[in-house]
Amino acid sequence: xxxxxxxxxxxxxxxxxxxxxxxxxxxxxxxxxxxxxxxxxxxxxxxxxxxxxxxxxxxxxxxxxxxxxxxxxx
Length: 74
Prior knowledge:
By secondary structure, the protein is α+β, with helices and mostly antiparallel strands. It is built from three helices and three strands; from the N terminus they run αββααβ. Strand 1 (22-29) and strand 2 (34-41) form a beta hairpin. Helix 1 (2-18) packs across helix 3 (49-64). The radius of gyration is 11 Å and the shape is globular.
């Protein structure tokens, strides 16, 4: 159930990433609330990807799903 909420939330931020030629893929969610994602397209090699991950994706997921503690890229 929680994984589905995360996937739905990622679908909300996905168009913003796709507008710049990138994307995000859900990989897994650990019991401690850590969400693992894979950044693809232009996001994969972008020097700003860490900021996008933490200030964008992680911030949004934590706001809409309180069980999310962090987001990491794999």
